[in-house]
Write a structure and sequence with these properties.
Helix content: 25-40%
Number of domains: 2
Largest sheet: 13 strands, mixed
CATH topology of the largest domain: Isopropylmalate Dehydrogenase
CATH architecture of the largest domain: 3-Layer(aba) Sandwich
Number of strands: 13
């Protein structure tokens, strides 16, 4: 993605938007990626959230000449300097080794960033990956950033949008077992999802009249009811209801053709019905540079499109492309 040099209205001229960057699971690649970002140049006021000892130790292990400066508010970013809001881990951190004792720390990072955005101190938040399993093992219910931040901000209907270049894929359902997907797709839910997606494309990406393609749920979009009736009974009525509200949406399109160049040429976003219907295509198109954007929140939030990669932590082999793209997109959206 192209970096922008336009400054946000909330900050000093030339400083750019104020963004909070959470370092995520401390045993994963999150600290590595944050250090890589700090070494690069970005037109923004940044504040990284994490444990100073973890970041200093990781910088030494990776031999990165990044200067860590403790700060309370975002400051104009300088390449080679990491402005840090220190939040202490509960237990010592070993790269690649999860510890449930530090699950609360991970949640605290999210809370601080989210609450700062809600209070207007930050123009948006960018999140490094977290490990859902270890958070749940610590007794903290957590199904993902999307659901957690929606609950924290009181957003009734968050929508996960994945972005890789010009390809944008939204999800009608997120982290659900496949067996539970059909029941979760209702007319009301689909209409709400389409409205949020349309609004997010307008607000964050500048589309005046976003064009949305909706996938079917079943093979061949149900084959006129012979391979399932969800298209006839749920998806088609939802699309008609959305069209009646002025949305530009078409479908249901069979998922095996929705991502062909001919269909994508007339689409600003594709709505997939479930997680693994849309994300394999998105990650094939832009793995390592994809961005997760949460639509429907009263705040701006972008993130990586990958997990904690525990085996790569502190090895120097972690790719910062996705977090870099997430930060660049957050800057563009905040400026817009």
């Amino acid at each position: 993605m192209r970096r922008t040099s336009t400054s946000a209205t909330s900050g000093p001229a030339g400083a750019g938007p104020a963004l909070a960057v959470t370092s995520g699971e401390p045993a994963g690649v999150g600290p590595d990626l944050c250090l890589a970002l700090a070494a690069a140049d970005f037109p923004a006021r940044l504040l990284f959230l994490g444990d100073r000892a973890v970041l200093r130790e990781r910088a030494e292990e990776l031999r990165l000449p990044v200067r860590i400066v403790e700060a309370a508010e975002p400051a104009a970013h300088r390449a080679g300097e990491l402005q840090l809001l220190h939040v202490a881990t509960a237990a010592p951190v070993e790269a690649g080794r999860l510890d449930p004792a530090n699950a609360r720390y991970v949640i605290d990072l999210l809370d601080i960033a989210c609450d700062g955005c809600s209070a207007g101190r930050y123009d948006g938040m960018v999140t490094a990956p977290v490990q859902k399993s270890v958070i749940c093992e610590a007794g903290l219910p957590f199904t993902g950033h999307t659901e957690y931040l929606a609950a924290r901000t009181g957003a009734p209907h968050p929508v996960m949008l994945l972005v890789a270049g010009k390809l944008r894929v939204a999800l009608a359902t997120t982290h659900l077992p496949l067996a539970e997907v059909p029941a979760a797709i209702t007319i009301e839910r689909l209409v709400d999802t389409l409205v949020v997606l349309d609004g997010g494309l307008r607000r964050h990406f500048g589309f005046a009249r976003p064009r949305i393609v909706a996938c079917g749920l079943n093979p061949h979009a149900g084959e006129s009811g012979h391979l399932g009736r969800e298209e006839i009974e749920v998806i088609e009525p939802a699309l008609k209801a959305a069209q009646a509200r002025g949305l530009v949406v078409r479908g249901p399109v069979p998922a095996d053709t929705a991502f062909t160049p001919r269909v994508l040429a007339d689409a600003d976003a594709v709505l997939a019905m479930y997680h693994d219907q849309g994300l394999p295509v998105l990650k094939h198109a832009g793995f390592g540079g994809g961005v997760n954007v949460t639509l429907g929140l009263p705040i701006l939030r972008t993130s990586v499109d990958h997990g904690t990669a525990l085996d790569l932590a502190a090895t120097g082999r972690a790719d910062a492309g996705s977090l870099t793209a997430a930060l660049e997109l957050a800057i563009e959206c905040a400026n817009r």
